[in-house]
Design brief:
Strand content of chain A: under 5%
Low-confidence stretches of chain B: 1-9
CATH architecture of chain A: Orthogonal Bundle
CATH class of the largest domain in chain B: Alpha Beta
CATH architecture of the largest domain in chain B: 3-Layer(aba) Sandwich
Order of helices and strands of chain A: HHHHHHHHEEHHHHHHH
Shape of chain A: globular
Helix content of chain B: 25-40%
Number of strands of chain B: 20
Largest sheet of chain A: 2 strands, antiparallel
Number of domains of chain A: 1
Strand content of chain B: 15-25%
Number of helices of chain A: 15
CATH topology of the largest domain in chain B: Rossmann fold
CATH topology of chain A: ABC transporter involved in vitamin B12 uptake, BtuC
Largest sheet of chain B: 6 strands, mixed
Mean pLDDT of chain A: 92
CATH superfamily of the largest domain in chain B: P-loop containing nucleotide triphosphate hydrolases
Low-confidence stretches of chain A: none
Strand order of the largest sheet of chain A: 1-2
Distance between the termini of chain B: 55 Å
Radius of gyration of chain B: 25 Å
Shape of chain B: globular
Structural class of chain A: mainly alpha
Structural class of chain B: alpha/beta
Radius of gyration of chain A: 21 Å
Mean pLDDT of chain B: 85
Oligomer: heterodimer
Number of helices of chain B: 18
Chain lengths: ~325, ~500
């Protein structure tokens, strides 16, 4: 054998080639298409304030979706997020009845979200139970507590300055929520794509055993991700409660599936191991645009959910369809 | 009609693959190969990893469709568009990792897909049990057809796979490395079974890396090299060296690397290591520059011990010392920090993250070194990955290629590069050349010699006697979770190894 020096290049593709082939590019085209259709469909669509209103359709869900994306990439899932919102909102509403101020309410919101996340985290990472079962359980548990506390009642009487989180504007048409959305998008994007922690998430999602054998503390990473998801649900609860101005136990019903839909539409593999934050950001806009555009056309909510479902299946099936067609041609 | 082998046989082959080609994007996996299988004969298929052996099995079992060429059974051309067609044509395969169902009973495993039916179309359980019991008895299996497969050991699972192969009344039986996970005794039993199948007139295709068993059991051979036929004939007409030459197209120096053992101080010590079920009272020293071999039968507790040393499982008691300092190893992360790394036997499941690119696999345990304040630095990662993969002569299109797209041997190189990049003191290799072809084996051995010459220490778990004999300075033999012998120099012979491992008393 002659040990010839073999040169292996770092990469064969340029960043441009990777971008053009990416899921995110495809999704962006879908977003532009829906945007164009909307602007033809309704004369009211291309109005700065209308567009600003449209963002409330997705900002709160998208904040949870960022943390959920990390969790799903690591191979776990949290279906209790909507119920965490209910429990958190109930805790904040109860505090208001005892005369809590805005700062206290916010702190309680963050704390309850974190505690709910920690509860899931302990059951999954320390007890070793499957996350889908654990969080289906806590989904009933957390919202159940809200129903026991509130029954058919509602908490109102939030302080006037608490309204800022869900109704306030930072500058011109830019709401506090959209600013928060952008900040979290950047933070989660950097964490997932630019840090050792993000790399560990991908490694765990691809092969948890090999990741553990490579010295990654798998359970610790997953614990942190459940905490983060709980915290983001708490933050979403603060924004949503502030926007609605009241708490009912049915708050945010069904959001867990919309959040998961957003994550999967964003190109995250539901089985873990791959996905990106830019993808989730675009998916959030796509879902927001579709619901808002249909709303302008007076399409009822039930029909909207049919559209979202078709959109999800369509976008997921499209690449598969294209390769099948290409294979048949060849 | 008479063939030119000079024997009296006038038999025609049962199955003929004639000029079969199979092309994958960028690779020609098979190029006009020819293969003939005769009734009542064992044909050995030999070749290096990646020579096309698995591809030809998949063509024969209807999983792949050939791009060119013809498959003929009894002289009639036939196409095998699905696995069901292959099964109907009487071709059945017993795979490397047997594809069976853990949660089903033995009888259900044997008859899945073709169970005897009652008049109502339901499964006739009574008849299925009876037939299964008959089949098991005919191959000398001593377990009940209604136990769950999960409760059987690996050797017995093989027997179930063989019973399944016989249940479809197969004429052609393909055995893909059937002895890879079996002990000596179990292999001997398998040989008897193959003889029995021959006597029943089955045509057997036997794929193996082990030359001793090829010469023991095969009647004919076909050699593949880089997707082409490199030779075929009667096994009695060929020598081991000639076969190796056909496989690799060059003479392979089978001699292990010469090492002048200059051992240093003790770098690593284990004392009183015990585990509730797997092993007890293990203690040894490892010197700088030493290769310490661990020999034993499957199930002797060697891998379990190594995983405990690496912090994957917790020993119930015991002390681990590196350079004389006690280290508490509670996780692989602790072990890596102490300079102990582990190359597992199961590369796919435990070694490589196959969905991630090469460079990310290499840097995974060294991210602290390549990053700054927890932030990734790609340029540093590529540099580190390049430095260590080039030492191992990795073959890949780019460092950004997914590890899952590489061949087994190159995946192993990525795993080893990953560990070298952590600059360890002790490297534990668990069956480092299992399933690796002869050419790559020699490269791995040469590399091990190079590593110890640079001052690393190696613990090598191996079940191959030539490898243990050729590479180790010292060998510890384990049996049933205990150290039963430590052999060096004159006491280290194949006979002493086997005797201690099997627990046979001195004669």
């Amino acid at each position: 054998m002659n040990p010839t020096e073999r040169f292996i290049p770092d990469r064969l593709t340029t960043p441009m080639q990777r971008l053009l082939k990416s899921w995110e590019t495809l999704l962006l085209l879908v977003a532009v298409g829906i945007f164009t259709m909307n602007s033809f469909a309704s004369p009211y669509f291309l109005d700065a304030w209308n567009l600003s209103d449209a963002t409330f359709n997705f900002t709160e869900k998208a904040m949870i979706a960022f943390a959920m994306a990390l969790l799903i990439i690591s191979g776990e899932i949290d279906l209790s997020v909507a119920s965490i919102i209910a429990l958190t909102s109930t805790a904040m509403g109860a505090a208001v009845q005892y005369g809590a101020g805005t700062t206290d309410i916010v702190l309680i919101g963050l704390l309850v979200g974190l505690l709910c996340g920690a509860f899931n985290a302990v059951l999954v990472t320390i007890m070793g139970l499957p996350s889908i079962v654990v969080t289906i359980g806590t989904m009933s548990l957390f919202r159940g507590i809200s129903y026991i506390v509130l029954g058919d009642q509602a908490y109102r009487g939030y302080p006037a300055d608490f309204a800022f989180f869900g109704q306030g504007y930072v500058w011109w048409v830019f709401s506090f929520e959209i600013v928060l959305f952008v900040i979290f998008a950047i933070i989660y994007g950097v964490v997932l794509h630019k840090t050792n922690f993000g790399r560990a998430i991908y490694a765990i999602g691809n092969n948890a055993t090999a990741a553990q054998f490579s010295g990654i503390r798998v359970q610790r990473v997953k614990f942190i991700l459940f905490l983060l998801t709980g915290l983001m649900a708490g933050i979403a609860a603060i924004c949503l409660t502030s926007r609605l101005g009241s708490t009912r136990p049915s708050i945010a019903v069904g959001w867990e599936l919309e959040v998961v839909t957003m994550v999967v539409l964003g190109g995250v593999n539901i089985l873990g191991g791959s996905g990106s934050i830019p993808g989730v950001v675009i998916a959030a806009f796509v879902m927001g645009l579709v619901t808002f555009g249909l709303g302008l056309l007076n399409v009822p909510g039930i029909v909207m959910s049919i559209f979202i479902g078709l959109l999800l299946i369509g976008v997921i099936a499209l690449p598969r369809l294209l390769t099948m067609i290409a294979a048949r041609r060849a | 009609m008479l063939d030119n082998a000079g024997t009296a046989e006038v038999a025609k082959p049962v199955v003929v693959l004639d000029g079969i080609s199979k092309i994958f994007p960028g690779v020609k996996a098979l190029s006009e190969v020819k293969l003939e299988l005769y009734a009542g004969q064992v044909t050995a298929l030999v070749g290096e990893n990646g020579a096309g052996k698995s591809t030809v099995v998949k063509v024969l079992t209807g999983i792949y469709q050939p791009d060119e060429g013809a498959i003929r059974i009894d002289g009639h051309p036939i196409s095998l568009p699905t696995a069901q067609h292959a099964s109907d044509a009487g071709i059945t395969a017993i795979h490397q990792e047997t594809v069976l169902f853990d949660e089903l009973s033995v009888a259900e495993n044997i008859f899945i897909g073709h169970a005897p039916k009652t008049r109502l179309g339901l499964i006739d359980i009574v008849q299925m049990q009876r037939k299964a019991a008959e089949l098991l008895a005919s191959i000398g299996a001593e377990f009940d057809p209604d136990v769950k497969l999960r409760d059987l050991g690996i050797a017995n699972k093989h027997l179930v796979a063989i019973a399944r192969a016989l249940s479809v009344d197969a004429r052609v039986v393909i055995m893909d490395e059937p002895t890879a996970a079996l002990s000596h005794k179990e292999i001997a039993e398998l040989y008897e079974l193959v003889e029995a199948l021959k006597a029943q007139g089955k045509a057997i295709l036997f794929i193996s890396h082990k030359f001793d068993e090829i010469f023991r059991i095969a009647d004919r051979f076909t050699v593949f090299r880089d997707g082409e036929c490199a030779g075929e004939g009667q096994i009695s007409d060929v020598t081991e060296d000639e076969l190796v030459h056909m496989m690799v197209g060059r003479a392979v120096n089978q001699i292990f690397p010469e090492r002048t053992a200059a051992l240093g101080d003790v770098v690593f010590q284990i004392a009183g290591y015990s585990h509730p079920t797997e092993f007890a009272d293990i203690g040894f020293n490892l010197k700088k520059g030493e290769i310490l071999g661990f020999y034993g039968l499957i199930g002797a507790g060697r891998s379990e011990l190594m995983q405990a040393i690496f912090g994957v499982t917790k020993p119930s008691k015991g002390v681990s010392k590196v350079d004389g300092v006690i280290k508490a190893v509670r996780s692989p992360a602790d072990a890596i920090r102490s300079g102990i790394v582990y190359v597992p036997e199961d590369r796919g499941a435990q070694g490589a993250v196959t969905g991630l690119p090469i460079f990310q696999n290499v840097t995974l345990p060294s991210l602290k070194k390549t990053s700054r304040n927890g932030f990734l630095r790609m340029a540093e990662e590529f540099a580190l990955a390049r430095k260590y993969t080039s030492r191992l002569d990795l073959r890949a299109a780019s460092l950004d290629q997914n590890v899952g797209d590489l061949s087994g041997g190159n995946q192993q190189k990525v795993v080893i590069a990953k560990w070298l990049a952590t600059q360890p003191k002790v490297i534990i290799l668990d069956e480092p050349t299992k399933g690796v072809d002869i050419g790559s084996k020699a490269a791995v051995h040469a590399f091990m010699a190079e590593l110890v010459a640079q001052g690393l220490s190696i613990i090598m778990v191996s079940s191959e006697i030539p490898e243990i004999m050729g590479m180790s300075d010292r060998v510890i033999v384990m049996r049933e979770g205990r150290m039963v012998a430590e052999l060096t120099g004159d006491t280290l012979t194949p006979q002493t190894l086997v005797r201690h491992a099997a627990g046979i008393a001195e004669s």
